[in-house]
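Pilot study result, target chain (133 residues):
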Amino acid sequence: MIALKKRLGKGSYGSVYKGVLRKDRQVIDVAVKVLSDMSPENSLALWREARVMQMYDHPHLVADFGLTRKSKSYKVNPDKPMNLRWLAPDVYHTGIVEKHTDVYAFGITMWEVFEIPYHIPYHKWDADEVTKY
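Predicted structure:
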């Protein structure tokens, strides 16, 4: 369990807090980044940051603490840039994001975390090609 303590700073993506991780009767000081906006762009930036953090010789934890939207579905704004490679194919056609499309995006993200050597999803395709399939 992670308990948030003092806010250490605030940036364009959100706030960073000093936290305490309680695990196996140990208490470990941690830094916790909380996104102010869980847009696909910010989520991707956080995952990229987590990949960079893997290069450091200290433990790190990445988790989603229930930051999904409160409604059952929402319509994406087609005028805003989207991370097509992480969206479920249904979203390309309907513009509607629901729980099952979030699960798809999470699966792509998990694939990214374990992909060695790392390539962005569908790296051999142009963005336009991704939406065709």
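One observation from the pilot: Residues 99-114 form the longest helix (16 residues). A full batch analysis is planned for the follow-on phase.
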